[in-house]
Design brief:
Layout lengths: L8 E5 L3 H12 L3 E5 L15 E2 L10 H5 L1 H11 L5 E2 L3 E3 L14 E4 H7 L9 E5 L3 E3 L1 H14 L3 E3 L4 E6 L5 E6 L2 E4 L2 E4 L4 H6 L8 E12 L8 E3 L4 E6 L2 E5 L3 H11 L7 E13 L5 E4 L6 E5 L3 H18 L15
Parallel strand pairs: 1-2, 1-13, 2-9, 5-15, 13-20
Antiparallel strand pairs: 3-8, 4-8, 5-7, 6-7, 10-11, 11-12, 14-17, 14-18, 15-16, 16-17, 19-20
Pfam family, one: DAO
Keywords: Oxidoreductase
InterPro entries: FAD-dep_OxRdtase (IPR006076), FAD/NAD-bd_sf (IPR036188)
């Protein structure tokens, strides 16, 4: 089935990792792309992401098919953009449950000896853990910048530090472009990938986008080199090493993260908190991505989601296929706005 709204002329609103991926893939597909953002590419909630490509084990949900392809899509992107800042470390997850956990796709159950081999600094390796060797982490801002550079190299025009104030329609009700603080930008299709701002941009058009800001604390810590080797996920934190002497962590509070790291790993006496950032990740009310055209506003397309870093490579390619090539991607069928 073809999409009659296919367009070679589009404006992408939002240069976070999702918008950057859409712009890159659309430009690569031959579209004339304009990418616009209120700040610099990747400077919003993308910069506040823990950036774990962790989609193995997914079995159900509207975006299950999309999520299980996440690592494969990033490996494809690595081939297209050599030097992409991705680290395929694998991930280890455990909690305090007494029973043996169940492994999902791409996962295996490992014992304490294997945990100790994978993470030698763990004080008391759990009896069981879930090992996902195909997972990893990314430098989310670095990936975004590479995607924007890739879009530019294929002719995309990029307007940073330029806020979009309203989506404009023509006399027939079809999208005509966007008004910005720097003037009007025309486009036959407008892709809203503006995170939590997507709802405000949709409202004047009569489009309700059920997405709310969800706080996402991110902590940066100084730590000994090689302290953490994989992505480690426990009931207390998600943790990974991002440089020789740097960790990032997602947890509830700075006090809890420091106490948890010190109690979980040996050699942590010198670990110190360097910074705390509280991002506002876009969270659809059902937790699943909202991706697809808006029937009531011809030419308008939405791409807003939680797990944006994980899904960005896949979503960018699929959105470009729908918007530029006119295909209708079945893997996105559960992500449409009309499910609400």
């Amino acid at each position: 089935m073809n999409n009659p709204l296919a367009s070679k002329d589009l404006v992408v609103v939002g240069a976070g990792i999702v918008g950057a991926s859409v712009a890159y893939h659309a430009a690569r597909a031959g579209a004339a792309v304009t990418l616009v953002d209120a700040g610099r590419p990747g400077s919003g909630v993308t910069a506040d992401s823990f950036a774990w490509i962790g989609a193995s084990g997914v079995r159900e949900g509207p975006a299950a098919g999309l999520r299980v392809s996440a690592t494969e899509e990033y490996r494809r992107l690595e081939g297209e953009l050599p030097g992409l800042p991705v680290s395929w470390s694998g991930s280890l997850s455990w909690n305090r449950q007494e029973s043996v956990p169940e492994a999902g796709p791409g996962q295996t159950i490992v014992d304490a000896a294997t945990v100790a081999r994978l993470e030698p600094a763990v004080r008391q390796p759990p009896e069981w853990a879930v090992w996902a060797p195909g997972e990893g982490g990314v430098d989310s801002v670095g990936v975004t910048e590479r995607l924007v550079a890739g879009a530019r190299a294929r002719g995309a025009r990029v307007h940073q530090d330029t806020s979009v104030t309203v989506v404009r329609r023509d006399a027939a009700g079809r999208v005509a472009g966007v008004e910005t603080t720097a003037g009007f930008l025309s486009g036959a299709t407008v892709v809203l990938a503006a995170g939590v701002a997507t709802a405000a941009l949709g409202a004047p058009l009569g489009v309700r986008v059920p997405v709310e800001p969800s706080p996402c604390p991110l902590f940066r810590l100084r730590a000994p080199a090689g302290l953490v080797r994989t992505v480690v996920s426990t009931e207390d934190f998600d943790l990974r090493q991002v440089a020789a002497d740097r960790l990032i962590a997602a947890a509830d509070s700075p006090e809890r993260i420091l106490a948890a790291v010190r109690s979980t790993f040996r050699g942590t006496e010198s670990v110190e908190l360097l910074s705390t950032r509280i991002g506002a990740r876009p969270m659809p009310v059902d937790g699943e991505p909202i991706v697809g055209p808006v029937a009531a506003v011809p030419g308008l397309y939405l791409a807003v989601m939680h797990s944006a870093v994980t899904l960005a490579a896949a979503v960018g390619r699929l959105v470009a296929r729908e918007v530029v090539d006119g295909s209708v991607e079945s893997v996105l069928s559960g992500c449409r706005l009309d499910r609400f």
